[in-house]
Amino acid sequence: MKVEFDEDTCIGMYQCVVEWSEFEKDKSAGKAVLLESEETDDGVFVREVPEEDELDAKFAARTCPVDAITIYDDDGEQLIP
């Protein structure tokens, strides 16, 4: 499973931080940060989701009020949002 996080879309509600420990608050920027992720050419941050964290990652994506988090299965099919 893979997660993509669009930092530009994030509005800093930090609900993802509550749901998954791999998100952290960046109060100086007013946005969340996806830990251990790599930035793509279009400013989206991507990382693999460990199997034991899949449920938490899904909850983080579902709670984002602006759909800044997208979850993909191993075949590249979009699961959330």
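[next item in queue]
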Amino acid sequence: MPDSQLQLLEEKIDTLIELCADLNRENASLKANANSWSKERQNLIDKNELAKTKVEAIISRLKAMEQDS
């Protein structure tokens, strides 16, 4: 294999190595973002359930007050 072809092959391999490293960093970032969004989603679901429980309790008390009248 002539030196020029070997040099070209080395450059292509170096480019692939850099691309692979870039993709690994991007993948790690995307996984971190997905984890963050998942935690935020769960927090919102929990807050929604708490609000729903409070509203249901208020409605029950209002109905009880209405029946007492």
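[queue empty]
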